[in-house]
Write a structure and sequence with these properties.
eight-stranded mixed β-sheet, Immunoglobulin-like, elongated, three-stranded antiparallel β-sheet, single chain, 242 residues, 7 helices, alpha+beta, Arc Repressor Mutant, subunit A
């Protein structure tokens, strides 16, 4: 009887251990990225105050930005960012941007608010007003001058818009803080200028994917060198004296 009792207890313990192992394998770490940026007014190209930002995440997020700047965390997925500026409960300008997050990191995505369709229609009506005015005054010369002013203003606005857009596109890439890279360099120095990637990961409060990206950044700058040894990576600090 004592032997049967011990055998049953041992079987139960084994079953519990197996269930715990299966549960740990089913737990999948959630990857997330930090998305931040500034929302600009299209006429002044300055940050738009009190703009409303909507993200079609689950659940949907709706944020009022007093200074036009945002900083959010989103898991890996596809999203659409909607930005709207209201005056007297009417949408004066808006924009949207589709983003796809596939890995951890910090992404800077700036947006430029553009006039709504209703406001564009209002601008198009300027031509009709000009025609009516000059039919009454019959001043053809002034009409051409006014058209020239409007065309020149449109070119200037378009040029300023393209300049800011190009500037923004250059910054819409993952960004790693210098302090984080310096921490990696200090850890390697304190370990006689070499350390395994697994050991380095233990001292960094980041995911394995982010640590790998940071190491790639340092290797591209020729600050470190990675050597494959079996299934492990050995990180060696390069000689910076030359």
């Amino acid at each position: 009887m004592i032997y049967d009792f011990k055998s049953k207890s041992l079987i139960k313990i084994i079953q519990i251990v197996i269930l715990l192992l299966i549960s740990s394998l089913l737990i999948v770490p959630v990857s997330a990225a930090t998305i931040k940026g500034t929302i600009y007014d299209w006429t002044t190209l300055t940050p738009q105050k009190n703009v409303v930002l909507e993200i079609d995440s689950i659940p949907k997020q709706l944020i009022v930005l007093p200074d036009g700047k945002y900083d959010i965390e989103l898991p890996n997925d596809n999203y659409t960012l909607y930005a709207r500026y209201y005056e007297n409960n009417n949408i004066e300008s808006e924009t949207s941007e589709i983003i796809s997050i596939t890995k951890d990191g910090i992404f800077i995505i700036d947006l430029i608010l553009m006039p709504t369709i209703e406001n564009i229609d209002t601008l198009n009506n300027i031509d009709l007003i000009i025609d009516d005015y000059f039919e009454e005054t019959e001043n053809t010369y002034n009409k051409y001058i006014l058209y020239l002013i409007i065309i020149s203003a449109s070119i200037i606005i378009y040029y300023r818009y393209q300049t800011l857009k190009n500037k923004i596109s250059k910054t819409n890439t993952p960004k790693t803080q210098d302090s984080e890279l310096n921490k990696i360099i200090s850890l390697i120095k304190n370990n006689n200028n070499r350390i395994t990637q697994k050991e380095l990961r233990k001292h960094m409060p980041f995911s394995e994917a982010k640590v790998s990206l940071m190491l790639d950044d340092l290797e591209n700058q020729k600050i470190i060198r990675k050597i494959k040894k079996g299934r492990a990576n050995i990180i060696i600090l390069q000689d910076q004296t030359g």
